[in-house]
Amino acid sequence: MTGIEQTRRRAILDPRTAAERFRLTQEPAPPDLAPFLDGFWILHWNLAEPHRQRVLTHPVVHLTFTTGGQARITGVVTGTSTQEISGTGRAVGLRFRPGGFRPFLDAPVSTLTDRVLDAEEVFGTRARAVADAVAAEPGVPAALLLAAGLLRDVRPTPDPEIDTAARLVGVIGDDPAVLRTGHLAAIAGMSVRRLQRLFAQYVGVGPKWVIRRTRMQEAAARAAASPQNWSDLAAELGYADQAHFTRDFTACVGVSPAAYASSARGPNGS
Q: Where is each HTH araC/xylS-type domain found (predicted)?
């Protein structure tokens, strides 16, 4: 698994259980859509009982086509997202780059935050026909081609601000020392106010939120992988003490770090 795939999968909570319930694969974005699109994800499931999956989403917009012909746009989810799947089905998702959905929207991306829209609200009636075609197409490559066609119909104009926004979100993920908005603004060579406006327009949430969410994803991934010294981890993630870290983790994930670690690693701690 590549480093990029590992980063994407950090959004999935309780990964051990998730791996038993569904199969998730990734495909890269086609070159002509790469300025806007990070790539595709494809989910397959065949379940005897419904499964509810918790996710700590990344600061990106998703366009998802699911079994039954639904097509929905999901903005950045600031809380813990829970999705239920049941029976047998498939979802085809388009994962936009941070900032990459802005050219498709006549408004700041922050207007989508914590919202789910029918794709027709943004892409018009063409989205309905594409959703039906994707649902009817059994082959994944052909389904991805149909989904990508909806974006190509818009003929979006490349925007250099997308690259700026995506680069700065990447800096947060790549550099654990970036713990404050002011630090990121200095790296970007812009004022804090300008940085906050950029994130509202293109990312959908503020830089402080992205920093906190990225650190929580890191904490959850480590807790699920191996035993942790919570005090050391709190310090590494920029917290003044373990109590503040525990409070933030519990508010974000829904359970304490220790409880999450126990659940995610299973009864044998593996």
A: 166-263
